[in-house]
From TrEMBL:
The keyword Transmembrane applies. It comes from Fusarium falciforme. Keywords: Membrane, Transmembrane, Transmembrane helix. The chain crosses the membrane at residues 102-121, 141-160. The lineage of its organism: Eukaryota, Fungi, Dikarya, Ascomycota, Pezizomycotina. This is Uncharacterized protein.
Amino acid sequence: MLHFMGDPIDSLWSLITKAEVWNRFYAIALRATPRGPDYEASARALAAILSAFEELTNDMPSVNRELENIVNENGARLAKQDMDHILLEAAEELVDSRSNEVLRTCVVIINYLCSVLSALIPEIGGEQTSQPGGRIGTAMFLSWLVTIVMLSNTLSGFVSRRTCLRIMERYCRTLKGKKRDQHIFPNSPMLTQE
């Protein structure tokens, strides 16, 4: 939240960029997923995997190619049903590991409402010597903070990058049938070997 207050333009731009990346990956996933009974769920799962790849590599153009390489290496060995199950399982784990900042959102909304009420109601905010327009202006200035915090809560990040890394390496390891981490992500820490 301090970053939002210190540099609101960069914070909002980062959130909007993240939303656009997710939207592009969802469009790619819709085109790549064959039509079927679980079409929508499979597309969302693929989009979640693509987004996690991008978050770890920071290289959007190569994400789809890298995932295709991983899947194609194992396409002959695993049945499509198994591949879909592994994909859905990894996507669900990725979604579950995202942070949820409901408390932060509630604190910001309550702070905003209190500042508006104290600017408008003298019994709450007290008698002030300044013009009411200045007090209301200050309260209205905080309205951008509510928008950013709610958007940030919707586009939440992972609890830690290591969590995302472990899930993705487990996904790749499961696809490849290996017993140790693949370390396919640049600069990834060495994780425990089995």
